[in-house]
Amino acid sequence: MKPIRFILPGALLFLLLAILTAGPAVSTAQGQPCPTCGAAADREGCTVIMVGKAASTDGSVMTTHTCDCGECDWTWRFIPAADHKPGDTRKIYHISQFGNWAPDQGLKWEDIKRTIVMELPELPHTRAYIHGDFGYMNDAQVAIGESTIGCRERMENPTPAAKFDITMLTLIAMERAGTAREAIRIMGELGEKYGYGFTDTGEMLAVADPNEVWTFEIMPVGPLWTPQSGKPGAVWCAERVPDDHVAVTPNESRIGEIDLKKPDYFVASPNVIQLAVDMKFFDPKSGRPFNWKKAYNPTDVSAAGTKGARVRLWRFLDLVAPSQKFSAATRNEDFPFSVKPEKKLSVRDVMRMTRDKTEGTPYWPARGIQGGPFQNPNYLPYGFELDGKRYSTPRVIGVNRAEYVTVTQSRGWLPHPVGGIVWLAWGAQDTSCFMPLYAAALDRIPRSFEIGDHWNFDRDSARWAFDYVDFHTQVAYNLAIEDVRAAQKLYEDPAVERTEAIDKAALDLYKKDPALAAKFLTEYCLANVDHVLAAWWQLGDDLLVKYNHMWVYDKATRKRGPLKFPDWWLKLLVEYNHLTPEPAAKR
């Protein structure tokens, strides 16, 4: 790791050093079919949690995104604010959220620039923002989280006539929007005018600002659409989460009946109902009200009916409102759009939810023999096929294929450079560490965030530090995960706890010199990243040594002891392998 360089005044340097002081932390081949994946793997990626400002403990609006791809380009970029001259244009690219690129091709964000789909007139000024697979937060605290929801097959438009995909829409929204409602309008109008689809089908975005959070869902309108048709090239709808409510989207549409006479809660494209009528998804003579999800994305499934393959919606609702006793047998499309949580949620609570694996329920993936002797909940995350039959296994929120996880906080009582935070955790949720990025104050991100891919181990890539720990955790999971949690307690919990102090220091600086406040927050974020990365590389080394050769090596005593295998597993071994006990010793 390169040494941390501080260029701040002495008092600020002292503050940074003080707050960062902590103790040490104790596939198949590409292109080959996955025999344990099945069709469910194609769409079960990414969970989004939304928290209204009156539902959070501190008044922040929160969103999450678990980028559950498993083979996508994970790299991040910082885009600075910019002023543009009359006549300047913004190049539009087709960007596959699912693709990956070899490092010698320049990785994703260089490779896409080789093909220009179209150009738009530039604005006089565009905003600064940070993005990974999608735009996550800009300098006005507009934040986004994404979940693929799909749509009816007849709606898909994989043709080049659709100029916008979901990634490109989020980037333009980041550049141009000052509020969540502006972002929704911008994305909706671009999809309508220029067509939406190509690499994407139905998509959901959580769109937030310091005051509110919306569920925005957009879908293509079929492969025959052309700009010359005069019809919208996308159909979309957005519903606001009430301020005192929370909501979740687990790869299925969540918007039901809509009331466009309430624009503070519902907005939609002009074809929102007519397209469903034209495609015979909705009969206005039926006497039933129009229901967005039943028209465009019906899902006749439940947690119980799928043996936990579609458990995330029920699980989230049961976590936040347990006294309502939601049934796992309830069809997902019959659950409410949002609920008032029984306890307000802190950012730490939301982080825990992104790691949830339904422990304590019948859908815990490590239950029984599935988790093996060391209760590993990461086995068979897609279910499996055997003898021509398909078997489901639980698909939890904290699935083990995340590229990264974000938790955004938009905080209205603070100026934008201080108020907006993206908490970023690389790799699988259970073995990673959330790190704060004061998004509106940054002027750069670490180089380690901009590089790396799945097929090349790279110690200069931030993501690989966490994959290194994750790999060594799987060997003896229920033991090693305790070492990881101890490290999270040392490095993640203090970062959350010192947010208030960092906010105060930054706000005091901001009142005197906004530029110095931004520099302070940038240096704090980058120093914390270096601090955590060094700890995680060390943690990976420590786990390798501690559980080497399936033993337990104790550094303190310099003794080696055996891993303890549970009796239930040993009994199964005896039964399956037809083992017989050794003869009793003769006396």
Biggest sheet layout: 6 strands, antiparallel
The average pLDDT value, as a whole number, equals 92
- Bulk shape: globular
- Share in β-strands: 15-25%
Low-confidence stretches: 1-43
Distance between the termini: 63 Å
Strand arrangement within the widest β-sheet reads: 14-1-2-18-19-20
Which value, in Å, is the CA radius of gyration?
25 Å
Structural class by sheet pairing and helices: alpha+beta
What does this molecule look like?
With 587 residues, this protein is an alpha+beta fold. The protein has a domain at 33-413. The protein is built from 14 helices and 22 strands. It has helices spanning 10-20, 107-111, 166-176, 180-194, 274-278, 292-296, 312-320, 347-354, 416-419, 462-473, 477-497, 499-512, 514-546, 567-576; strands at residues 48-51, 61-68, 77-79, 82-83, 89-92, 118-121, 125-126, 129-131, 135-138, 143-148, 203-208, 213-219, 235-241, 246-249, 266-268, 384-386, 389-391, 402-410, 421-426, 435-438, 551-554, 559-562. Strand 11 and strand 12 form a beta hairpin. The model is unreliable at 1-43 (pLDDT under 50).
Structure in a nutshell:
This protein is of the alpha+beta class. The chain contains 14 helices and 22 strands.
